[in-house]
Amino acid sequence: MRDFVLIDADALETHNLNRFIGGTPRDAARKRMKVDIVADLIRSIDSRARVRTYASKFPTAESAAALKTVDVLFGCVDSHGSRLLLNAFSVQYMLPYIDLGVGINADESGTITESGGQYRVVMPGGFCLDCVRAIDPVAAGQDLLPDDQRKLHQSRGYIPTEDIAAPAVVFLNQTLASLAVGEFLNLFTAYRAPQRLTYYFLHDQSMRSLHMDDRRADCAACMPTGRLARGDLEPVLGGEPPKPITLSTLPSPTHGRSDSA
Fold first, then answer.
1. From first to last of its 261 residues, what are the pLDDT tens digits of the chain?
2. What's the half-sphere exposure (Cβ side, CA atoms, 13 Å) at 153?
3. Do 60 and 132 fall within a single domain?
């Protein structure tokens, strides 16, 4: 595996350092883009690696075009809006998509009450994240609002502004990342039965895998009338609308003999 497409609009900040592998205080002071730091880390491991970076929100025309060329999508995101976009892209282009998420909940005294995470594997023709109710449509809609509208809603209290600046979850991130990489390898080697809905509970160090094979019949994302296998026939969700087809954009007709293989 030597071909990587990295997409992230964020620069490294000091409060990221306790959980961002490869980032240094100097990187944070310089506000280096996270994709550039990870690209350097990948190349330090394998100098032959091809790494394409897009320091922007997904999707742009360039990042979407690059993502169409990959074999597997990894979603390491922390918002329902991002999951909505990646799930739709996976369904539209029939790309396997491994979604990861972690969470730590604490009470008012700071005592941790719940902690853990999950990985979910969306396979072409199988269930998607919408099918398993993994995306909150209200939260996703809030996430995808333009910045000015989002700030307005936050100022009026319609959208919560609460954020944890430096959650110490690096060990939990690493645990879920390792489990997801194991499932990624299983896609190509089939060394065991697939586990496509797996939940990890930190408190008792336990795991639980659920089994679901079929799409939900009323799923808006992957039903036949939705985005399933639409490819370039449908604009990418969240991206620019496709350019209209005109006579000037159509290929010129060919005349005479043509060879085909």
1. 899 999 999 999 999 999 999 999 999 999 999 999 999 999 999 999 999 999 999 999 999 999 999 999 999 998 999 999 999 999 999 999 999 999 888 888 878 888 999 999 999 989 999 999 999 998 899 888 887 887 777 777 666 665 555 456 899 999 999 999 999 999 999 999 999 999 999 989 999 999 887 788 889 888 878 899 999 999 999 886 555 545 454 455 544 444 444
2. 14
3. no
Domain annotation covers residue 252: no
The rounded distance, in Å, linking the Cα atoms of 237 and 60 is 10
* 246 inside domain: no
**Three-state DSSP class for residue 88:** helix
Contact 61, 36 (CB under 8 A): no
Do residues 94 and 186 both lie within one domain? yes
